[in-house]
């Protein structure tokens, strides 16, 4: 290890000059990296700079086969046929983000970003903990042990990309990070103040030679705004409006900049807590989720749609207030369900199969799991808590959706999915419906941040989906069951949206839907009553499409595995949704040969 001796001696001298001889520490590198009060974090950040320089050497020249053979992106240049680490790059790059996310402003933190934008791998989390806790006297020894274990060459170049959120302590910690990284032989590129997802994006772009996107702020904003308009190419009847609580963090500036490329006729954003107040002080996604209440600084009426970011904009939750003044939270589980529902609907229109899965943790709402598995038939995988576990599992599907209940998540589109969607979107030999579905999903793959959960891109994804579904929010799911003698009696067409058997059932559904006050007009126009109430019965998934304006109100579908059918209904209020669902279920029961008791709210809703 003689080659490391000069480097190690320089590190030891610098540390003693700054802090003297310090004993061993007790820091622990976790999913969020290291976090502490900012005034106690200096030595740890200095050493993370060293670690990042070592990690960059370890990843130089590595490729990721899961990103091979991606199609040409519509939104980035130059053209490419594959996306992997750029072997022509003189040095591999890792990222380091200085942030404490939703923690109070007096705290700060630091974490390392892998070359393709993922979280630091487990082995190097252990290295990080060892390095951060070494006494001054053992620092050199620990560095040499890590270098030997990872088989590192001190002569290899390395590069560290760094950014910080808008905490006052960030600039001082940035200087310590750069010092440690440069003494360990790395070249540093400081992106300044960014959201955490933006840094993940930058790292991925740099290490793919620009194939994932342009590694600049403007490149990030242009990619998201362009993808949003590709996903929603037609101007809606009226613009959506969402009030965004940015937690007085860096996400406020990011949201404002990306909206510079989004046309106001499509979407309007009203920023609150945009950075002019105290970071995370009674605001932000964690405050809203934990307290089940609105953040300070956000004035909203019943029906106003609102969203909250956390301090570094890698989490998002939605909330609103019903007509009774009750606070309603739409968390990560509901965002995942909405995304999965939209993707599932588009996949049904395609002539080829792509696997779709949702990844949750044990903390996920059981109702969302039931909705996904029993109503959509979408596989749900459960992993340990921690974003890295969800991300890894989601990558095993062609399209993997993952969100923690706290609002951190994204949608991953694998190389096979992107290639097939890209080809189908441009294939003149397929129907217009197939082209449109493929185009929507491909645009969605460009809109979401494939590296990490991103509040800004997730908000644009949700808003695009709501525009397509022509509703202003999404609501509560309730499951109910009853059996029929033979599920195959129920036959559907138009991608399972129009029931053609038993005779007379679709006409009865249409009559029931039309009888509900405002039930159809609710899905056709924007009105004060905001919430889309959804009730589920596992008799038949009842949805009926209004062909004139493509808005869902009811639809029926047999189960693929057992003699039950599923019913789905939408209405203006929860009471109307429940009533409509039971009425449609009773009609299915009568005409399709139901067994047991006639379905009612009490004996069939779960």
TrEMBL record:
Domain Phosphoacetylglucosamine mutase AMG1 positions: 215-317, 331-470
GO molecular function: magnesium ion binding; phosphoacetylglucosamine mutase activity
Uppermost EC category: isomerase
Alpha-D-phosphohexomutase C-terminal domain mapped to chain residues: 539-586
Pathway: Nucleotide-sugar biosynthesis; UDP-N-acetyl-alpha-D-glucosamine biosynthesis; N-acetyl-alpha-D-glucosamine 1-phosphate from alpha-D-glucosamine 6-phosphate (route I): step 2/2
Assigned EC number: 5.4.2.3
Sequence positions that bind substrate: 404-406, 524-561, 566
Amino acids binding Mg(2+): 101, 310, 312, 314
Keyword tags: Isomerase, Magnesium, Metal-binding, Phosphoprotein
Cofactor: Mg(2+)
Entries under InterPro entries matching the protein: A-D-PHexomutase_a/b/a-I, A-D-PHexomutase_a/b/a-I/II/III, A-D-PHexomutase_C, A-D-PHexomutase_C_sf, A-D-PHexomutase_CS, AMG1_II, AMG1_III, PAGM
Catalysis: reaction(s): N-acetyl-alpha-D-glucosamine 1-phosphate = N-acetyl-D-glucosamine 6-phosphate
Organism domain of life: Eukaryota
Catalytic residues (positions): 101 (phosphoserine intermediate)
SUPFAM superfamilies (alphabetical): Phosphoglucomutase, C-terminal domain (SSF55957), Phosphoglucomutase, first 3 domains (SSF53738)
Chain ranges of the Alpha-D-phosphohexomutase alpha/beta/alpha domain: 91-125, 137-207
Cofactor note: Binds 1 Mg(2+) ion per subunit.
PROSITE patterns attached to this UniProt entry: PGM_PMM (PS00710)
GO BP annotations listed: carbohydrate metabolic process; UDP-N-acetylglucosamine biosynthetic process
General function of this protein: Catalyzes the conversion of GlcNAc-6-P into GlcNAc-1-P during the synthesis of uridine diphosphate/UDP-GlcNAc, a sugar nucleotide critical to multiple glycosylation pathways including protein N- and O-glycosylation.
Family: Belongs to the phosphohexose mutase family.
The protein's name: Phosphoacetylglucosamine mutase
């Amino acid at each position: 290890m003689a080659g490391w001796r000069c480097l190690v001696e320089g590190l030891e001298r610098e540390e003693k000059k700054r802090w003297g001889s310090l004993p061993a520490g007790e820091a622990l590198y976790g999913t969020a990296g290291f976090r502490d009060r900012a005034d106690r974090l200096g030595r740890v950040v200095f050493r993370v700079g060293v670690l990042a320089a070592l990690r960059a050497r370890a990843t130089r020249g590595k490729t990721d086969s899961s990103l091979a053979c991606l199609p040409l992106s519509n939104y980035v240049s130059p053209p490419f046929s594959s996306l992997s680490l750029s072997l022509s790059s003189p040095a591999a790059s890792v990222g380091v983000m200085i942030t404490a996310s939703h923690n109070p402003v007096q705290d700060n933190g630091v974490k390392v970003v892998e070359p393709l934008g993922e979280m630091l791998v487990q082995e190097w989390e252990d290295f990080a903990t060892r390095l951060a806790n070494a006494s001054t006297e053992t620092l050199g020894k620990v560095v040499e042990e890590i270098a030997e274990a990872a088989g590192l060459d001190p002569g290899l170049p390395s590069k560290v990309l760094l950014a910080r959120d808008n905490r006052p302590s960030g600039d001082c910690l940035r200087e310590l990070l750069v010092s440690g990284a440069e003494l360990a032989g790395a070249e540093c590129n400081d992106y300044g103040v960014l959201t955490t997802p933006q840094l993940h994006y930058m790292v991925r772009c740099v290490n793919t030679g620009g194939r994932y996107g342009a590694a600049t702020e403007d490149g990030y904003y242009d990619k998201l705004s362009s993808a949003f308009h590709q996903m929603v190419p037609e101007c809606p009847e009226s613009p959506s409006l969402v009030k965004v609580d940015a937690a007085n963090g860096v996400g406020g500036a990011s949201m404002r900049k990306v909206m510079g490329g989004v046309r106001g006729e499509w979407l309007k954003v009203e920023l609150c807590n945009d950075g002019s107040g105290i970071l995370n002080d009674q605001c932000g996604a964690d405050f809203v989720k934990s307290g089940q209440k609105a953040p300070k600084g956000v004035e909203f009426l019943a029906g106003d749609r609102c969203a909250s970011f956390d301090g570094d904009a890698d989490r998002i939750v939605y909330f609103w207030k019903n007509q009774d003044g009750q606070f309603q939270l739409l968390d990560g589980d509901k965002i995942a369900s909405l995304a999965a529902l939209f993707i599932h609907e588009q996949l049904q229109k395609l002539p080829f199969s792509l696997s779709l899965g949702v990844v949750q943790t044990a903390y996920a709402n059981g109702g969302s799991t039931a909705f996904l598995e029993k109503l959509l038939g979408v596989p749900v995988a459960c992993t340990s808590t921690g974003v890295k576990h969800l991300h890894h599992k989601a990558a095993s599907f062609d399209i993997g959706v993952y969100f923690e209940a706290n609002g951190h998540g994204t949608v991953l589109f694998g190389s096979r999915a992107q290639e097939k969607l890209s080809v189908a979107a441009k294939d003149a030999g397929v129907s217009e419906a197939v082209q449109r579905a493929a185009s929507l999903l491909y645009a969605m793959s460009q809109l979401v941040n494939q590296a990490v959960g991103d509040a800004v891109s997730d908000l644009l994804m949700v808003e695009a989906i709501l525009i397509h579904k022509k509703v202003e929010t999404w609501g509560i799911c309730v499951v109910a069951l009853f059996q029929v003698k033979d599920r195959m009696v129920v036959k559907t067409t138009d991608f399972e949206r129009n029931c053609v058997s038993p005779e007379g059932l679709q006409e009865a559904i249409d009559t029931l839907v039309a009888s509900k006050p405002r039930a159809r007009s609710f899905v056709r126009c924007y009105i004060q009553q905001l919430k889309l109430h959804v009730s589920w019965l596992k008799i038949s998934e009842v949805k009926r499409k209004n062909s004139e304006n493509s808005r869902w109100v009811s639809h029926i579908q047999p189960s693929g595995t057992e003699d039950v059918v599923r019913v789905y209904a939408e209405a203006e209020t929860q009471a109307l949704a429940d009533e409509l669902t039971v009425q449609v279920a009773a009609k299915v029961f009568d005409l399709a040969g139901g067994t047991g008791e006639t379905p009612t709210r009490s004996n069939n809703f779960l």
